Amino acid sequence: MSKIIINGQKELTGEIEISGAKNSAVALLPAATLCKTKSTIYNVPEIRDIDYLIKIMEHLNCKVTVDNGAITIDSSKLKNKPIPEDLSVQMRASYYFMGALLAKFGKVEMSFPGGCNIGARPIDIHIKGFQELGAHVEIIKNRYIITAKKLKGKKIYFDFPSVGATINLMLAASGAEGTTIIENAAMEPEIVNVASFLINMGVNVRGAGTKTIEIDGTKNVDNGVVDVFPDRIECGTYIILGALIGKNLRIRGIIKEHIGALLMKLTEIGVNYEINGDVLTISKCEDIKPANIKTQVFPGFPTDLQQPITTLLTQAKGVSNIEETLYENRFKNTYDLNRMGAITNVLTLNKLEIKGPRKLKGTHVIATDLRGGASLFLAGLIASGTTEIEQCDVILRGYSNIVEKLRAVGADIEYVE
Ligand code: UD1
Question: Are residues 267 and 405 in the same domain?
């Protein structure tokens, strides 16, 4: 079984370059199937989710060429085939083929998507949206068969601004007749990234990044080109790392507006950093104050940084509190953090208390989910002794070249098959 092994307490200095955003890239690849012939996506991260998406696209008869972070997709011979369960369950984002294939062929058949086990994660908002556009949805066991003779644009109100549902509906609406208006849409930067790709391939999209998005459907979609935005969660994770054990650690590729909530929280707890262009420089904070954090949809504090910042708060002088409002099962990392010496208490399903500061000690731990795994590798990097992270492949689903990047700034870390 593969493991990440860390010998901690090595001061980290030098530069880490942020890769393209996982949550953008995993939507942009399925979006490329909307094009009649070719499209190119630049700055794609080297992560496991992308490998699986490419397998799905090849199964659908796309020709996919990967060249130094640029992925070119030739979808001229795209075939609409059911997506096998062993591929679709590898990640949650496989659900974006629902919107894309529905727009293109009026039919899609696939199993319920997978992804990290951090809560129930239903896709009812996606399904209701497809139905509003005129699709018929049949669910047999965990298999979804979605068909539409014709998709028709409509005004849709979301019960909750779901990232996945917003993107999926944008994809489906691209192939609908007339205009679709999504009200209470998600405003995350990944939505803007996908919208810019759609616009580039010929779909008229207005309002992405706001609560109301309008999409004019068209059959004339081709030659999309897009750059994946830098990954704001990878960026946030490495900034937190800098506050824990950096020495003038430079993080290159930051977009301030994408990480505003994190930066404000860091300032509040006493962490200093400097921003010059797209580079943030940060060193270990010797006097971390406790904080109260509530996860929210963008531009609020991102749930995906909740587990990483928990590790930082184990070093704060006093009691911190976290309220997780998006997922009901996102504190599984705290079991192993406590085994390493932290004191965290899950007060209710979505409330966590962290008592610091605590010295952490390396031991065997298990990465139960992607960002929980991140909180453990951060802990391992500041802990005394050796930390062995089992089930570490879940971390490789979202952190591009993590071992190489951390080694380059001085970490003693290795990946063992
Ligand atoms: C995306 C991100 C994930 C991030 C999350 C919130 C991807 C591939 N994943 O996940 O990293 O943690 O945004 O920022 O982009 N919900 C429903 N019904 C639905 C859809 C969602 O009840 O149909 C609920 C979910 O269970 C969850 C909340 O809404 O409690 C947020 O979900 P959503 O915004 O859809 O997140 P994902 O797109 O799954």
Answer: yes
| Structure token digits, residue 131 | 């139905």
Same domain, 313 and 390: yes
Q: Which of 227, 255, 275 is the last residue of a domain?
A: 227
Same domain? For 76 and 132 the reply is: yes
| 217, 319: one domain | no
Mean pLDDT by groups of 10 residues along the chain of 417 residues = 95 98 98 97 95 96 97 97 89 93 96 68 93 96 92 98 98 98 98 98 98 96 97 98 98 98 98 98 98 98 98 98 93 97 95 97 97 98 98 94 98 96
Count of H-run helices and E-run strands, the chain = 14, 23
Cis bond upstream, residue 299 (ω within 30): yes
Last residue of a domain, one of 227, 252, 283: 227
Residue numbers of the domain that contains 31: 22-227
Question: Is 326 touching ligand 1 by the criterion CB < 6 Å?
Answer: yes
- Mutational pocket test of ligand 1: of 123, 125, 160, the residue with most ligand atoms within 8 Å of the beta carbon: 160
From the CB of 121, is ligand 1 less than 6 Å away?
Answer: yes
Other C-beta atoms lying within 10 Å of the C-beta of residue 274: 11
Tell how far the Cα of 186 is from the centroid of ligand 1, in angstroms.
Answer: 10
Domain count, the chain: 2
Inter-CA distances, 90 with 56, 137, 254, 395, Å: 11, 22, 29, 13
What backbone torsions phi and psi does residue 310 show, to the nearest 5 degrees? -60, -40
